[in-house]
Amino acid sequence: MNETKLLLGLIRSELFPKEDCLPVEIGDDTLKILYNLSQKHDVTQILANVVIKNKLTKNPEAEKLLNSKKMLAVWRREQLDFEENRVYTLFDREGIDYIPLKGAVIKKLYPEQWMRTSCDIDILVRKDDIEKASDLLKEKLSFTDEGQHFHDRSFISKNNVHIELHFSLEEPFDKANNMLSKVWDYAEKKEGHRFELNNEFLIFHTVAHMQAHFAGGGCGIRPFIDLRLLSTKLDYSKEVLYKMLEEADSLVFFKAVLDLTSVWFDEKEHTSLTEDMELYITEGGAFGSRANYSAAVRHQKGGRLGYFLTRIFPPVSQMRSMFPKLNERPILLPFYYVKRWFGLFNVKWAKNISHEFIKKEKADSVSEMMKKLGL
Questions:
Q1: For residue range 92-128, what is the model confidence (pLDDT) as tens digits?
Q2: Rounded to 5 degrees, what are φ and ψ at 146?
């Protein structure tokens, strides 16, 4: 049995119901595989709801475990919503323009908002307001500052909720940055100091974010679900969206993604490209894999030598993300290269680096797929 296909069919029955024919029962061995696969892609709460609601298991222990995962997702969503509203209220009161991003927006398109899990809260503020906004989070809400990264400042609340306060949507090496840098041009003013992305840019940003993760090792199943909900539940101009995608050189990738969502949620036939994409995505999970990352970077750098040099001397943009002080003192770059090298020589690095020795066949296969996707 193809457990990936079964999991996607169960998700489809919950989120995009048609004339789906659910199995009468899922055996323990199959359910265990589905559970592990759903954990890998952070969609266990959806699996749990389908199985429990439709009584697809007669194993009380399995049902208890699934129910606990569902309740955990409900509780986690309540925590995120609580902290989101605290930040929004603060920024409205203090005159900070902001745009809710990613899960904070997309959750509303799911049958139940807890079905859309999030690792963190993503909020965009204007670049000129990042210092004031950061100080407010620390002084007024007692958030702990976790430091600055490539495009955001990271914070942790007392409830252990992670907040990414973005001052930009741009990504390292992302060719969509020419459009992402214009984000405020596509934001509409709402109540207080809240802005919301128009529907075309909301879909575009989702695609650009998928593209960045896909090129870095994989993005998992969930972004495909998000995109399916966005493209089927929102009113938007296809012409405007396609113009954005063309300007960002992302239209080929977008069309391939739509093809794969049609395979998964409309039961269309696979092509050789969608089969390769599915394998890459399912192997990588929600956060990609080192083997996928290694193959993807080798493609981008033109082979093993380019990949090796990138591992030894990462691009400046990546170093700035790893060591934010470089944004203020770029002259220290050589010092931080040395610091990074010494940090690599530990047991954890040795374990991780072993996953990067991939077969030539996989590297070539991923490279060919990336070429077809325009990446």
A1: 999 999 999 999 999 999 999 999 999 899 999 999 9
A2: -100, 5
Radius of gyration for the alpha carbons in the chain, expressed in angstroms and rounded: 21
Q: Which tokens hold the place of 57?
A: 């298991």
Spell out the residues 6+ positions from residue 334 whose beta carbon is closer than 8 angstroms to its own: none
List, in sequence order, every residue forming a beta bridge with 197; answer none if it has no partner: 187
Q: Identify the burial level of 2 via C-beta atoms within 10 angstroms of its C-beta, where 0-12 means exposed, 13-18 middle and 19 or more buried.
A: exposed
**Predicted confidence band of residue 318 (pLDDT cuts 50, 70, 90):** low
Is 5 a residue whose pLDDT tops 60?
A: yes
Q: What pLDDT score was predicted for residue 208?
A: 93
pLDDT digits (tens, 9 = 90+) for 44-72: 999 999 999 999 999 999 999 999 999 99
Q: Indicate the helix (H) or strand (E) that contains 44.
A: helix 44-53
Average pLDDT across the chain, whole number? 87
192: left (phi over 0), alpha (psi -120 to 50) or beta: left
302 phi-psi bin (left φ>0, alpha ψ -120 to 50, beta other): left
The candidate with the shortest Cα–Cα distance to 42, out of 213, 201, 174, 166, is: 213
H/E stretch holding 155? strand 152-156
Give 177-238 as a 3 state SS string: HHHHCCHHHHEEECCCCEEEECHHHHHHHHHHHHHHHHCCCCCCCHHHHHHHHHHHHCCCCH
The angle at the Cα of 287, spanning 352 to 372, to the nearest 5 degrees, equals 100
